[in-house]
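Researcher: Let's continue the batch. This sequence belongs to Integrase, and it's 363 residues. Same format as the previous ones, please.
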Amino acid sequence: MGTITERRLKDGSVVYTAQVRVMRDGKKASASSTFERRAAAEAWLRRKEAELKKPGGFEKLEGARTGGATLADAIDKYTKTSTKQIGKTKAQVLKAIRSFEIAALPCSAVTSQRLVEFAQELAEGGRQPQTVGSYLSHLSAIFAIAEPAWKMPLDPAEMRAATTVCKNLGLIGKSKKRDRRPTFAEMNKLMAHFEDRWRKGRALPMHKICAFAIFSTRRQEEIVSITWADLEAGRILVRDMKHPGEKEGNDIWVDLPPEAERIVKTMPVENSRIFPYTTDAVSTAFTRACKLLGIEDLHFHDLRHEGVSRLFEMGKTIPQAASVSGHRSWPSLQRYSHLRATGDKWAGWAWLDKIAPPEDVEE
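Model: Same format as before. Here are the structure tokens for Integrase:
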């Protein structure tokens, strides 16, 4: 009754098309859907075959063939017609949702029960509560506009009910604030490893990028996006700075500490960008190095946390720290309020002088 066809796309990835065809009393009914995972295609096929065995199942399938938008259709409509730029994370999440069985359901069939089952499937797949919550949050944006904008019957009340149930079951929750900071020993090991690979011509100058991340407090995606044109004495322009409510147009001037400025001056002007690399290259290099060196649970973003912590330990006020970090909401810096002004622990760090010798600094 049902078949699954494997197809390889131009980019080398494989997709699986599940199809079910039925003929009854001279009438034909069929349905098909494509998934990125074979398991999702098999699950969809089992559900369709089970529905056909129920009273009215054939008629329902025949009706679905002639109309009825699916959740996947709604996702596609949202990504194509949204006037706001969809962030990278949101785009990746919505693409991932399309590979699950729930995406093949007609919009009218995406009930709170189905959404809870989807959340349970995500959790069973190893995703943390904060990640599951992110999936439902991004999906809820589509539920809010699908019916009034495109007449696709996604009910926001079903999403609200599912979210409440998922919270009560512990399937979704807020992410925990990380407080991981690199030690001197860990940073020295990383710097030695990265410099060695760079001098041998095997990799990008990760030792400079990591040091810049600490002293500038810049995020990974910001570091690789800054151009020479964005640089002025003592400050830089960070374009489209990360903001929870807006994805573009957040161009903000931030102070550039002298240590970070010293590192910038060691970079060759061979590209419009100061650090002309990709976020994937930086992330992969950092993760691999930590694994190789036995450094556990250290993320590249922890270097920004270290940099902001350093500012408070140097005795900077919240406004002064924000002028460097770029935080527009001062309450978001309250997590650092417990830090005491103990001085700059990175003062005299040998690796800074090694990668950016003082004599390279203009008097």
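Researcher: Any comment?
Model: Strands lie at 2-8, 14-24, 27-35, 231-232, 235-238, 252-255.
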